[in-house]
Amino acid sequence: MNGLKYVRPGHGFEPNFPLFAKRDVNGEKEDEIYTFFKSRCPTPDGFINDLSNIRWSPVRNNDINWNFEKVLIDHRGQPKARYTAPYTPADILDDIKGLMTICQKERKGK
C-alpha cells in the first residue's frame, strides 16, 4: 500500500477499491483465474521471447510472458482477447468499445 501512497502515483493516494494480493500466473501454483484466462485466450505472440526470464515450472505454451499482459473480459465474465505487455489500453480501445456495444445491445433486448 505504501508503494501506492508514496511512490506510484504518490501524493497520499489511497485506493477506494479492493486490491489483490500477489498471485502466481504460471507454473504449478498458478491461480485458477489465470488458468481460466489462458485456457480461453492463447498466447498473443505464440511464443515466449526470452527463455532466460522463465522462473516457473512447468512451462506451458500459453503461459503469460511478461508483466502487464492484459486480458479483455466481457460483461459476462468471459475472456475475449489477450494482449502482450507493450499494448496500452488506448491500443485496444476499439476492442473495448466493441464489447461495450455488444453489452448495450443485449441489455436493450431484455
From TrEMBL:
It comes from the Eukaryota. Coiled coil: none annotated. The keyword Mitochondrion does not apply. GO terms for molecular function: peroxidase activity. Keywords: Oxidoreductase, Peroxidase. GO terms for biological process: response to oxidative stress. SUPFAM superfamilies: Thioredoxin-like (SSF52833). InterPro entries: Glutathione_peroxidase (IPR000889), Thioredoxin-like_sf (IPR036249). Pfam families: GSHPx (PF00255). Belongs to the glutathione peroxidase family. This is Glutathione peroxidase.
